[in-house]
DNA sequence: ATAGCAATTGAGAATCAATCGCAATTGGAG
DNA sequence: CTCCAATTGCGATTGATTCTCAATTGCTAT
C-alpha cells in the first residue's frame, strides 16, 4: 500500500469519528511510516524534529491513541517499562522472548499458538483485537554466562 | 506451605544474596501473603498501613524486585498501565483475556500453548523464567453491546 | 464560496508513580 | 560482642504522560 493510500485511510478513520486531519497529524503519520522497526515516543519525536517540522510533544502523545485505534500502529513490548510501537503494515505479527539480563528481544511466531489463541477466544465469546505474548528469561548468551 | 515456611524461604533467598531479613521485609511479606488475588503497589501499601505498621513507601518499592526474584510474587497484567502483582503460591499460572472496553479480565490456561512456548524457547536456546500473555479485545458482553 | 463551531494545537504547568540521596540505624557473619 | 555493609525513612527528584486554556483552524452545512 502506498503512503498516499495510508494517509487517506487514516483520514477516513478520523472523518468517521468526526475528527480532523490536521497537518500535525499528517507529519506524525509520515514520520511513523518512515520508521521500520520498533520505536518509543521519544524516537518518534526525535524523527519529527529532525525533519525540521516542529510539533509539540503533547500533540504527539495526543495522536497516539488515534493511531492505535485507526490501525496504523500497534504496541509492542519493550525491555524497560516504556511502551514501544511499530507500524502495522510491513511488520507481521509476532511474539517475543525478552532477556531480563541483557534486554535483548527475540521475535518469533508459532502458528499453533495462534490457532489455540483463537480457540480460547471462541470458547469465551471473546472478540480478539490483538494480543501480546512475552516470555521473559535468559537468552542463550546470558544463560551460558551465568553458569 | 505454611506462612512460616514461606518466611524462611524468603530469608534463605536473601541470605544467599548477602542481604538481610529486616522487620520491614517481614511485614511486607506478611501483607502479601494476606492478599489472595491481584494487587497494585498502592493496594499493598494500604494493607500495610491498615495493619498499623508504618513502613516507608520507598521501602515497599525497594522490596518488590526482591520478591520477584525470590519467587514470592509475579507480575500480572492490569487494565490500565499500572503494574499488578500476585503471590505465586495459591495462584496457579494462567494467561489473560483483557476487555479493552470494560476492563474485565478473564483468566485462562491452555496446556498446548504452554507446551509450544517451551518448544519455542528450546529452539532459541532461551531459558524461560515466566511469561505473560494478554489477548486484548471485547468480552462477550461488550461485543454484543457494540452491535 | 463562506460562516460558524467544534476540534486541535502549543507551551508550560501539573500529576503521579517510581527512584534517589543521605544521614541514622541495624542485621548477622565471624 | 564487634563491625561493616545493607537497610531504612523522609523528602527531594525524576521522567513520562496528561492537562489547561487561549488562540487557531479544519470541515460541514448553508
Features:
homodimer; 147 residues; alpha+beta; Arc Repressor Mutant, subunit A; Dna Ligase, domain 1; 2 domains; three-stranded antiparallel beta sheet; three-stranded mixed beta sheet; 46% helix; globular; DNA-binding
Provide a descriptive summary of the structure in words.
- The structure is a homodimer of 147-residue chains.
- Chain A has 147 residues and is an alpha+beta fold.
- Chain A has two domains: 1-91, Arc Repressor Mutant, subunit A (Orthogonal Bundle); 92-147, Dna Ligase, domain 1.
- Helix content of chain A is 46%, strand content 21%.
- Chain A contains six helices and six strands; from the N terminus they run ααβααββββαβα.
- The first copy, chain A, has a three-stranded antiparallel beta sheet with strand order 1-3-2. A three-stranded mixed beta sheet of chain A has the order 5-4-6.
- In chain A, a hairpin with a 7-residue loop joins strand 2 (73-76) and strand 3 (84-87).
- The first copy, chain A, is globular.
- Chain A starts with a helix and ends with a helix.
- The mean pLDDT of chain A is 89.
- The interface between A and B is medium-sized, with 33 and 33 residues.
- Chain A binds a DNA duplex (30 and 30 nucleotides) through residues 15, 18-25, 41-42, 54-59, 61-62, 81-82.
Amino acid at each position: 500500500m502506498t503512503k498516499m493510500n495510508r494517509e487517506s485511510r487514516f483520514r477516513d478513520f478520523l472523518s468517521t469519528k468526526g475528527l480532523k486531519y490536521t497537518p500535525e497529524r499528517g507529519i506524525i503519520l509520515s514520520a511513523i511510516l518512515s520508521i521500520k522497526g520498533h520505536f518509543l515516543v521519544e524516537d518518534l519525536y526525535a524523527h519529527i524534529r529532525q525533519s525540521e517540522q516542529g510539533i509539540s510533544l503533547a500533540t504527539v502523545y495526543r495522536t497516539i491513541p488515534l493511531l492505535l485505534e485507526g490501525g496504523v500502529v500497534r504496541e509492542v513490548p519493550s525491555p524497560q517499562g516504556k511502551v514501544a510501537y511499530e507500524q502495522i503494515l510491513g511488520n507481521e505479527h509476532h511474539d517475543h522472548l525478552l532477556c531480563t539480563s541483557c534486554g535483548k528481544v527475540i521475535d518469533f511466531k508459532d502458528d499453533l499458538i495462534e490457532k489455540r489463541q483463537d480457540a480460547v477466544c471462541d470458547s469465551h465469546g471473546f472478540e480478539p483485537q490483538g494480543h501480546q505474548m512475552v516470555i521473559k528469561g535468559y537468552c542463550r548468551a546470558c544463560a551460558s554466562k551465568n553458569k
